[in-house]
Amino acid sequence: MAEFWTGYLLPLILILAKILLFVVPLLVAVAYVTYAERRIIGAMQMRIGPNVVGWFGLLQPFADAVKLLTKETVLPTGSSPVVFFLAPMVTFSLAMIAWAVIPVNEGWYIANINVGILYLFAVSSLGVYGIVMAGWASNSRYAFLGAMRSAAQMVSYEVSIGFVMISVLLTAGTLNLSEIVMAQKGLWFFIPHFPMFVIFFVSVLAETNRHPFDLPEAESELVAGFMTEYSSMAFALFFLGEYANMIMMSGVVTILFLGGWLAPFDIAILNAVPGIVWFALKISFCLFLMIWVRATFPRYRYDQLMRLGWKVFLPLSLIWLVATAGFLVYTGRVPV
């Protein structure tokens, strides 16, 4: 019995506790990102935003959650029930499991695998399946068109995201996310790779279906895109998945370009601040930029979206990758 406890049960409990330490704060953060978005955009557009439920409207996310939980779940006629309800679960689950390899501080992670960046790229690539499943299973033209748009959009921008990641990996000399952060001591990668930082951030907006690339759920023509037929908790899971993806991709931007949990300058008073605080502040900065973009820019046309991805970002990221590799070989940092 003691061997069963120490060998099997105790490690399982510790792993579950570690997962909860990541998931619970993440879910709270997702709830308050929705609140922050409404307040920030309200301020930018000279509106008020949520300010009634709770002090400064801070309980609004919980009121929204209760409303969605108590609404009726509608199943469209002619839809595929299993796939219809599985789609939001897939989207939300993928947004959660991506955090398994993201280090929020030195030594703070669920799993420290040597190919963490490949794991992240694979999980983010699978996100398109939940959206395609939702569009197909809904038995709606609006939902199907939104799903097809999203599939083409995500596949297109993943190519440039991949090339940008490879440029960073060559510079760091590792695929381990913690080691990539430690390689930025003294110089964050967004400085030497600034054009790629911009391309990566814009590609993240397209990958997460955010403004000005929210064509899969364009209200003016597709009602709500692939989410048109969803209601109640199924809609809430898509909503949570989208914002969890925003936080996750902001975390990836932070790790690849903004030094992860490292302080901006090697000063004693800044180094005294816990690394997780710096990590959270950098993610908050990236989220603020996403919200700012939504409040500022109009939506792209679909042909403009595709042209930007294939004719601008892809050649630029490929040229930068070749230039980075050539520079590293020339300076002797990468042996031939």
Molecular structure report:
The chain has twelve helices and no strands. It has helices at residues 2-44, 60-70, 81-97, 116-137, 141-172, 177-182, 194-207, 219-222, 232-257, 268-271, 275-296, 302-330. It has two domains: 1-70; 79-330, no CATH class. The longest helix has 43 residues, at 2-44. It is globular and about 65 Å long. It is mainly alpha-helical. 68% of the residues lie in helices and 0% in strands. α3 runs antiparallel to α4 (116-137), α4 runs antiparallel to α5 and α5 (141-172) runs antiparallel to α7 (194-207). It starts with a helix and ends in a 6-residue tail after the last helix.
Round the mean pLDDT to the nearest integer and report it: 83
How many helices? 12
For the sheet with most strands, the description reads: none
- Give the oligomer, counting copies of the same chain as homo and different chains as hetero: single chain
Into which percentage range does the β-strand content fall?
Answer: under 5%
How far the N terminus sits from the C terminus, by CA atoms, comes to: 56 Å
Give descriptors for this structure.
336 residues; mainly alpha
